[in-house]
Amino acid sequence: MSDHTSRPSRRGVLFGGAVVAASTLAAACTSNSEDDPAPAAQAGTLGGDNDKPGKQVTLGFSAPAADHGWIAAIAKNAEAQAKKYPDVTFKPVEPTNDINQQISAVESLIRAKVGALVILPNDGEQLNQVARKAMDASIPVVNLDRVFPDKLSYRTWIGGDNYGMGVSAGHYVGKKLKDKGVSDPVIVEIQGIATLPLTQDRSKGFADALKSYGFSVTAKQDAKFTVESGNQVASNLLRAHKKIDALWNHDDDQGVGVLAAVKQSGRKEFFMVGGAGSANAMREIKAGGVLEATVTYSPTMAASAIKLGRLIAQGKGMADLVEQQAPQSVTLASETITKDNVDRYMPLGFES
Amino acid sequence: MTKTRHSGGTTPQAPRKGAGPNERGGALVSLTRKAGNGAPAGVGEIRHLGLVAALVLLCAAGLITEPENFATSGNAVGVLVLAATIGVISVGQTFVIIGGGIDLSVGSVMALASVWATTVATQSYGPAVMAMCAILVGTGSGVVTGLLISYGRMVPFIATLAMLVAARGLAQRMSDRRTQLIRPENDAIEALSTTKLLGLPLLVYIFAAVAVAGWLLLNRTTFGRRTFAVGGNREAARLAGIDVRRHTLLLYALSGFCCGIAAIIIMALTTTGSSTHGDLYELDAIAAVIIGGTLLTGGRGTITGSILGVLIFTLITNLFILNGLQTSDQLIAKGVIIVIAVLLQRRGLRSPA
C-alpha cells in the first residue's frame, strides 16, 4: 500500500488504541470464578457402626479427566467422601484421558502399596491388565462404572444402569400417558451418540418399558451429547411432529439445547423427561416447565465406591447385609426425579 | 503499530487519491478475469441454476414424502435458523478460499468465542459486552492465524490446523469443559432466537445481513477484486502492487470476525457457550463453499453459491429428520452430493474454455 506513509497515521493510532483497549477488556473476561459457590460435592452422611474409625487405610483413586460435568462430579464426590473419614488417606492420581498415562498412574499406586484402589477406567478393556496386576499384588480394586472384562481384575464393581435409565423413563412416560387416557400417543426420543452401547441399552430399556403399557416410540434421532446437537435435532424433530405427547432426552447436558429449541418453537403440548440428573435439569423441574422429570445416572456412585473401598480394605461387610464381606457387584437403580421429590435430590445434582 | 493498523478489520480500502490507485484497479479487473480462467459471468449463473435446481429437487422430495410437515412456514423458518451459524461462517470461509487459502479453525474459534463470551466475568458486563467479546475473540484468533500465514510464511492448512487444536483446547480450559449457561439477566442474547420480526427470528436477519455485506464486499469493492487477484495468481497480484501479505492477513481476520458473529448466533440458539460447539464445522463450511462453486485452489467463487450450498446441506438434515432417518444416512447423502457437485463443476469449467 503505497499511499501509507511510514509515519503512523491518525487512523492507525486511534485504531491501535482501540485494539489495546479491546484486548484489555477481552483479557479481563477470561475469569470464571463464581461468587455463589456451585453445589458442594456429594457424600453420604455418617451413621452406623461401619463409619466409626477403624484401621487406617490408604485409598488410591484414578479417573479420566473431566470432559463432561458428570466426570468432574465423580472426582469431586470421591474426594469429599474420603475426607469424611479420619481413618482414610485419599491418594488420587492426576486425571487423564490418555490410556497409557492412566496405566502408569495406577502402576504408581500399586508400587505405593495402597490399601485399595478405586478406578474409573478410560476404557475397561485397555485398563484390564493393570487392574489385574493390582489384584495379583493383593490390592483390592473397586471398579467404578466402566467395567473390566475380566472378573479377576476387580474385587467389586459398582456402577449405574443404562438399561434401567430407559426403563425408569419409559415407566414415567407410559404411566402418565395411560393415566391421561391417551391412545396411540406420539412419543419422541432424542438419543446420545448412537454407536455407544450405553445409548443402545438406554433405548432398549425405554422401548421395553413402554411396551408394557402398549406404547411404542414414534420417532427417535441421535444427537452427540452436546448442547448444540441437542438443539439442532430437537428443532428438526419438533417440526417433524406437529403434535407430540412425550419426549425423552437421554442426557441433561444436551437437554439444555433441547429445552432451548422447545422454547424457540413455543410448543407446550407435551412433557419431557431428561436423563442423568444435572443440577440445571433439577432447577427446570422445580420451576415447572416442559421438563417434568429426569432419570438419574448419578455421579454419587463415586462416593459409594469410596465407602466400599474403605470397607473392603478394612475387611468389613456392608452393614445392611448379613454377609461378612462387601458384595462383588452393586448396580445402582436409576431413580426418577420429579417436582415432588426434587428438593431431596437437588443437593445431589451436578453442574453440567 | 503498523501491524495493528494492518489488521484494520474488514473495511475495504477504496482507492481515493489521484489516478494511481484507479489505474491499479483497472489492472486488477483484467487480472481477475485471467485468474478466473476467462470464464464469462454466465457460467457462474448456470452453476447457481444447478444449485437452485438441487434445492428445488430437495423441496419436491420434502413435499412428496412429508407433505403436511415440510411445506409449513415454521419449517422454512427452522431451516433458515439452523443454517444461520454455518452460513455466517461460510461467508468468511468463501473469502479465505477465493484468496487461495483455507481456514480449518472456524469451528473451534467459534467455540472459543462462545466460551469467552459466557464466562462469569464477561457475563457480569451484560449482553452488549458479551457480543463484543465474541467478535473480538473471533477476529483476534483470525489475526493470529493470518499473521502466522502471511508474515510467518506458514502453509494455511498447517497454521489453521494448529489454531483448530489450540482454540478448542483453550475453550476447554477456560470453561473447565462445562456448559456455560447464559444467565437470566443476559437473556437479550437469547432473545435473538425468540424475538420475531415479520415472522422471522432476529438471528435470521443477522445471517442475511452478513450474506449481503459479504456479497457487496466481494463484488463491489477493491477489497473483493484484490481477493480474487491474490487467490488467482499471487505473484501477478504482487506485481500489480497489491500488498499480498497484508491482504492475506485481512482475509483470515475476516473469517475470524464471521466466527465471532456465528458464536453470538449459537449462544442465542443454545442459550450456552461451550467448548463442544462447532464440532466439525470446518468440514461443513468448506463443503458448502465447494459445492457452491468456489475453487479450492482460489481465484474464483461466489457468496451466493456458498449460501445455496449451506441451505442444501441444512435442508438435507431437515428432510432426513422429518422422515425419521438416522444420521448415518444423512452423512452418506452429503458425501454423494459433494462428489456430484464437484464433478458438475469440472464440466462447467471445461465447456466454455
TrEMBL record, chain A:
Domain Periplasmic binding protein stretches: 60-316
Database matches in Gene3D superfamilies: 3.40.50.2300
One GO cellular component term: cell envelope
Subcellular location: Cell envelope
Location of the region described as Disordered in the Swiss-Prot/TrEMBL record: 29-56
Transmembrane segments: none
Signal peptide start-end: 1-28
The entry's keywords: Signal
Xref: PROSITE patterns: PROKAR_LIPOPROTEIN, TAT
Short name of one Pfam family: Peripla_BP_4
GO molecular function: carbohydrate binding
Primary location recorded for the protein, binned into one broad class: other
Protein's UniProt keywords contain Signal: yes
Family that this chain belongs to: Belongs to the bacterial solute-binding protein 2 family.
The protein, known as: Substrate-binding domain-containing protein
Organism whose genome encodes this protein: Actinomadura soli
